[in-house]
Amino acid sequence: MDANKELDFLINSELDTDLKRIAEKVVAQERITFEEGVMLYEKGELNYLGVLANYIRERKHGNRTYFNRNFHIEPTNVCVYDCKFCSYSRLIKQRDEGWEMDVEGMMDVVRRYDNEAVTEVHITGGVVPKQNLEFYADFFKQCKAHRPELHIKGLTPVEYYYIFKKAKLSHYEGMKYLKECGLDSMPGGGAEIFHPEVREKIAHDKCTAEQWLDIHTQAHALGMNTNATMLYGHIEEYWHRVDHMERLRQLQDKTGGFQTFIPLKFRNKDNQMSDIPEVSVIEDLRNYAIARIYLDNFDHIKAYWAMISRDTAQLSLAYGVNDIDGTLDDTTKIYSMAGAEEQTPAMSTQQLVELIRNVGRHPIERDTLYNVVTDYKDVVFEEDKSKRYYALPVVN
After folding, report:
1. Which residues share a beta bridge with 71?
2. First and final CA of the chain: distance in angstroms?
3. Are 262 and 227 in contact (CB under 8 A)?
4. If you placed Cys at 305, which of 45, 124, 154, 313 could pair as Cys (CB 3.0 to 4.6 Å)?
């Protein structure tokens, strides 16, 4: 049954009146309200949410599913902030347990990929005083001089708020300067949960929601694209999640600068919130689906396969997700240190393509800005010419 027939069947079934109204609004491409978003969390069963989310996903993207070839640099895991959910960072007084790279060390990582067909370097990590504005300006300049075509997706408002304040620059001035040095876009980290009722308990000393949103606003004003995340599955209530997405939706209405929303699952290994159980895979899928339904002005919903496992990433493609990130390798420790299933997260391009094809989706390698690099519709991999793979046609 295709997405349209599934939705017709759903609407014509014996549904709760409120849920039927939401389904009718999805068909009519009407925006659902805050209260309806909370209702989806409270009353929406997995199958119902999946039908709605997949309908929207296929209306926007057909079967196309994106990934990219990227690598990560994490300049440090030492941090001045003390986020209760973080398994990755080490406080300044624990710096002997961590690492702090210099610019040359970061460039060594870049040079390691000189002969690889990667399109993006993703940079994020802890916050330390010596990795200041000029530290990153120097790295961005050297990286662009060495490999001009490599897209630099670097740092989050958590890092930027700290270094701009230290440099006595406004958010706009700081973002403008670093863009001139080679910064191309910004990832979505550091958002956690915006509402102060939760944020004060889990990340009280990092930038506020308003500061996070303003730094993205300034990046958008400079023509930069950014992403957004939400850390879910810990002490927040359902309405906190909807409040978080509502703030993002409102900013997107104003700027149009967000590309992708990435729900991030709270993992409880080796952190100060280890007593809180992790939510189930069913809740993961429900959360992806509701994000796809609520964030009507976001083009893409992404699942980080390295954080949620390859199997769950495949399942998510039926619940609103149309992007599963990239061929990142074990240079990234943020997921594994928090207890993710992938302890050395690496997949070859062939593995990613086959993961997507095996659930009937059409794999497309993209660059950071979602330009098509390679359409894998009819690609046969050299090491396996006995198999011929055909993805479903691209839906415009």
Report:
1. 121
2. 20
3. yes
4. 313
Count CA atoms closer than 13 A to 195's CA, side-chain side. Answer: 15
Instruction: Name the nearest CA neighbour of 327 among 304, 311, 308.
Output: 304
Structure tokens at 81: 């902030």
CATH number at residue 193: 3.20.20.70
pLDDT per residue, tens digit, the chain (396 aa), is 578 888 877 877 878 899 999 999 999 999 999 999 999 999 999 999 999 999 999 999 999 999 999 999 999 988 888 888 887 655 655 666 678 999 999 999 999 999 999 999 999 988 899 999 999 999 999 999 999 999 999 999 999 999 999 999 999 999 999 999 999 999 999 999 999 999 999 999 899 999 999 999 999 999 999 999 999 999 999 999 999 999 999 999 999 999 999 999 999 888 889 999 999 999 999 999 999 999 999 999 999 888 888 999 999 999 999 999 887 654 444 444 444 455 455 788 888 999 999 999 999 999 999 999 999 988 888 754 444 433 333 333
**Residue 379 counted as domain residue:** yes
Handedness of CA 305, 310, 314, 315 (dihedral sign): negative
392/377 Cα distance (integer angstroms):
7
Find out whether 124 and 154 touch, Cβ atoms under 8 Å.
yes
* 79 inside domain: yes
- pTM to 2 decimal places: 0.90
Alpha carbon distance 306, 281 (integer Å):
14
Q: Which residues contact 20 (CB under 8 A, 6 or more apart)?
A: 11
Burial of 299 (0-12, 13-18, 19+ CB in 10 A): middle
Domain range for 191 is: 64-384
Please report how many Cα atoms fall inside a 13 Å half-sphere around the Cα of residue 353, on the Cβ side: 19
User: Which residue in this structure is represented by tokens 């300006």?
Assistant: 137
Go through the chain and tell me how many residues it has: 396
Rounded Cα distance between 32 and 37, Å, is 7
DSSP assignment, residue 93? G
- Examine residue 246 and state whether it is found in any structural domain, yes or no: yes
Residue 15 lies in a domain: no
Tell me how many domains the chain contains.
1
Which one-letter amino acid corresponds to residue 339? G
